[in-house]
Amino acid sequence: MQNTFGTFQREGHIYNSFVPRNIVRISLILLSILLAIFAPFIVSGYSELKKATTSSSYVEAAEHYRNAAQRIPWRADLYELSGHAYYYAKDYVQADAAYQKAFYHHAFSPEGWVAWGDVNYLNKDPQRAAEIWEQALEQKNPSDQLYSRLAEIYQSNGETSKAAEYLQKYASVHLDDASAHYRLGLLLTLSDPNNALSELIGASQLDPELDSAVQTLRTTLNLASLNDSASARLVIIGRGLGLVNEWRLARAAFEEAVKTDEKNAEAWAWLGEANQQIGVPEGGNTELDQALNLNPNSSTVRGLRGLYFQRVGNFRQALTEFEAAAALEPKNPTWFVSLGESYAKLGDLIRALEAYQRATTLAPEDASYWRLLAIFCGQNNVNVNDVGVPAAQKAVVLSKEDATSLDVLGWLLLMDSRYEEAERMLTHTLELDSQNASAHLHLGMLYLQTNNRASAYDHLIKARDLGNTDAEMILKQYFP
Questions:
Q1: Is residue 471 situated within a structural domain?
Q2: What b-and-e string marks burial along 415-425, b requiring 16 or more CB atoms within 10 Å of the CB?
């Protein structure tokens, strides 16, 4: 029964009909107030997002993405975009902070995990980068880029087996990535030579530019397999890695060789050489002394010691070491080239010339020794006409007109004022190798001497742009 006061009475209970209507009305009022407060805030967030996509700089874009993420609660993924923009702007601290926000809001993509590690690595914190990438592997559908990055981290830490393990996972996905297969092959030379060779050959098939290095390593692995001594095998492998300029891996091989046989003098000497190559404090002096104590009658030990003293500027001691090496191995032309260098540094050009000539006598069919003799004559301006030019001509014949040999001949002819012949040789060099900075330098010098300044300028500019510092100095002098 309804009374005049708008209430219902039933079985002794009274129900007020105004209560539910009041709740709805109050809710609508509160919702209107909230919308009035937050709608402009959200609208401004979308405005920030639009500005981010049209910003002219990465920093501005990053700030707009961050502002948008703060104002649009359901777009936490914008923190990652902010991090990416800071990353591109090389502001790694701000990028790291933005990525942390994305992480806390569970709004990270697989690529975001990779980038988060990258900014820590670039900010010189590789340990933190590795921790992030390891954590990323535990996420759903992790990026395969993580394997490549972790391989690099562990390789830099000397953990070559673990590095190879990660790189194997990356290479198994990226079958056409020549660089990855080549890197994997390099790592496996230390632990699994057979599979290393397979990876290296596969890499050279994918990228022919790797063929030269792969052939060197292939020969190295074949030579190593013929040796019964584990320590000697590691030395051979380390030397091969050094030949392709992989000195950190070479050092790992020499360190293992020393552990395997602490009395292997050549392993100690090569470890010293590797330490010099990668800039280890003390520069390998300790290892070279240990090598000499173990075997003073090793030409390799004496020769590597000579190189060490040559690098530190002690040419008198270097000469002593090379003399010992040459006495122990008198038919090796390498030691006589080293003797020639040492004599030249000490100002004894007569003995230096004799040493270089001795090297060509020991290896008369090797173009490199004739070329070195010619370069010695040119650098020191001695016997250019009667020794230097004939040596360069011999090198050209033996090398079948290799561009480097042709350039040396052109340079020597220029020094001998035989301008027409020099121009012909240097022009031919550039026909074979248009990016030969040395040939551009020498042609520039030739045209300066023959008063063809326009051509001189063009070739000197090209030489400079190809990285020749001598060309840069000549330009400053003649074309200020």
A1: no
A2: bbebeeebbeb
